[in-house]
Amino acid sequence: MGGFKCGCGKLFSGSHNPGQQFRLVPDELFEQIAWPAPADLGTQERQRAVEESFSALYVCGNCGRLHRDGEGGSIISYVVDVSPPRIWADFALRDELGRVLLCGDRSLAEISRQKLLLNPPLAVVLYDDSGAEVVGEAEFGLDAARGYDETRWAVRLDSDSE
Asked: Per-residue pLDDT tens for 124-138?
């Protein structure tokens, strides 16, 4: 890779930038690369596969953007989205703690479309077809035994926005 300039103006040289460069490994090759069979450890085929599978990831220490190598020597940049995700909700669907449940098809489709991962607390904005918008924090829902279920979303609404 030659050098490139981040959107904030920071320059990345073509050489290793200590503390700012990482390597990405595709999921399908992770086990083969991380835990090879002992017989495959020193083979040229494995070394070639390792070198071809890695993609560089650069983190800008100035603005936090992520940059990765693209096809044909291009650089693909990612910027953190600081706005909370908007998710459609049926405000009538509540759990016994009074939290809004995001278990309907439309809510689940929006979560999937936005590729959201629940790592509580996650700030969200819920909305419905009436135009109502409410801020809250997504948490794990409850299962039938009143234990936390990491596959269910429940949103505790901010008291100021109810």
From this structure: 999 999 999 999 999
DSSP string, 8-41: TS-EE-SS--TTTEEEE--HHHHHHHHS--GGGT
Note the pLDDT tens digit of each residue in 88-146.
999 999 998 999 999 999 999 999 888 888 888 889 999 999 999 999 999 999 888 88
DSSP code for 130 = T
Rounded to whole angstroms, the Cα distance separating 25 from 52 reads: 10
Answer yes or no: are the C-beta atoms of 144 and 157 closer than 8 Å.
Answer: no
- Where are the alpha helices (H) located in 7-153, listed in sequence order? 27-34, 44-53, 105-113
Query: What is the distance between the alpha carbons of residues 107 and 120, in angstroms, rounded to a whole number?
Result: 17
Instruction: Quote the CA–CA distance of 109 and 16 in Å, as a whole number.
Output: 41
